[in-house]
DNA sequence: GTACTCAGTGACCATGTACTCACTAAAAGG
DNA sequence: CCTTTTAGTGAGTACATGGTCACTGAGTAC
């Protein structure tokens, strides 16, 4: 690769890194292209040389992120066959990626259909994994006879709620997921476990 | 009252009515002042004669709405001492006002602090009513020994989720709350009831 | 060494939107 | 009546923001 294309790749990566940082700070909707350019210390026009529109930039970043999410989910699915440990692994994951997921939780209803679809599709895979575990538990008569879909909706909605209201719930730089994880796990287990 | 002030009041009410309709259609954030003026068939400038800023207009409308919400809640609280009927009354209420509440569910994280605070305060009153009923149920040993706050958070988060994702979940002009009410009630009762 | 290529630049443009203000005309007042 | 007041008007302003384009200068090819 010659000097020129190498430099071009560097700039492209710089834009991606900087944009991701901006988006995590302020959300996709409220970050401006001028802001990204300024923070990356490049000209405003340079950004559009690499990404024709702001949306294309957002989609590329989210695709990258969701790809990594997908990998972690595969691990999660492979390793966890009981709810309790699956829950723990998933909440650990959410807590680590909380900066990004709280943005998604808030902004999801405002994204263009295609983008929202992608995000919901990833979520559906995780939901489905949990549902399967619960179904099997019910079949083995180890869990209560509840609707797995509804149970999972309760769980995911609650996590979504904490994430979207993050700025209200968390003090300082603490994690909302960390703050509520024990209570959420406990109540959710009460919902599905017998006795 | 003379002709002038009477006409002024009429215009003011016209703006309030029209703005409310616009906000319900497109949300507070995406409705423009020009749109409201055009739909009300008044000059753009007239709007600012009656409401100094868009935010003041929004706050006035939401205060009106929340006031009515408050009245209905008082009735709800007065009439319902058991969860099952309180739930039904509340979901009926949500279903009737779904147009407005789905906007609030989506946009809440983006409102200025004071406005969001007002909305959450009203919600807190309702949550608190439910929590009291559950606490009493637990004390009388009629309900399971769960954390009332967490149980209510599960319920409200789920309703919030359905409302904010309304455009995905509902087909045609049907109500999301109507669509999911039975399942939500059933699962919630399983969470809190014994057996 | 010379001509060509293209990443990068930043002033500029188009658009959208909240808000203003000089003006108009109808109503109020004496 | 004639003057004053004021609801209403709508062109205009200020600003934000996504996106463009003629130009520059370092790198590449010959």
Structure, explained:
Two copies of one chain form a homodimer. With 195 residues, the first copy, chain A, is mainly α. The first copy, chain A, has two domains: 1-52, Homeodomain-like (Arc Repressor Mutant, subunit A), CATH 1.10.10.60; 59-192, Tetracycline Repressor, domain 2 (Orthogonal Bundle). The first copy, chain A, has helices spanning 3-26, 33-40, 44-50, 54-79, 83-96, 98-107, 113-139, 148-164, 166-169, 176-192. In chain A, helix 2 (33-40) packs across helix 3. The longest helix of chain A has 27 residues, at 113-139. The first copy, chain A, is elongated, with a radius of gyration of 20 Å. The termini of chain A are far apart. Chain A binds chain B through residues 106, 109-110, 116, 120, 144, 146-147, 150-151, 153-158, 160-161, 164-165, 167-168, 183-184, 186-188, 190-191, and chain B through 106, 109-110, 116, 120, 144, 146-147, 150-151, 153-158, 160-161, 164-165, 167-168, 183-184, 186-188, 190-191. Chain A binds a DNA duplex (30 and 30 nucleotides) through residues 2-5, 7-8, 11, 32-34, 42-50, 52-54.
């Amino acid at each position: 690769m010659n000097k020129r294309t190498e430099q071009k790749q560097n700039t492209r990566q710089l834009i991606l890194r900087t944009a991701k940082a901006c988006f995590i700070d302020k959300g996709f909707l409220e970050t401006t292209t001028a802001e990204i350019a300024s923070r990356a210390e490049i000209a405003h026009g340079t950004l559009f040389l690499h990404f024709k529109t702001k949306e294309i930039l957002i989609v590329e970043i989210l695709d990258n992120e969701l790809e990594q999410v997908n990998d972690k989910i595969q691990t999660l699915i492979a390793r966890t066959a009981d709810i309790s440990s699956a829950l723990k692994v998933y909440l650990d994951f959410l807590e680590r990626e909380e900066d990004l997921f709280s943005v998604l939780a808030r902004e999801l209803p405002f994204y263009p259909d295609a983008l929202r679809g992608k995000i919901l599709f990833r979520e559906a895979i995780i939901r489905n994994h949990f549902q399967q575990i619960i179904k099997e538990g019910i079949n083995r008569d180890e869990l209560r006879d509840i609707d797995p879909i509804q149970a999972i909706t309760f769980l995911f909605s609650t996590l979504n709620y904490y994430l979207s209201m993050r700025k209200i719930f968390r003090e300082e730089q603490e994690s909302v997921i960390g703050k509520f994880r024990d209570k959420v796990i406990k109540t959710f287990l009460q919902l599905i476990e017998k006795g």
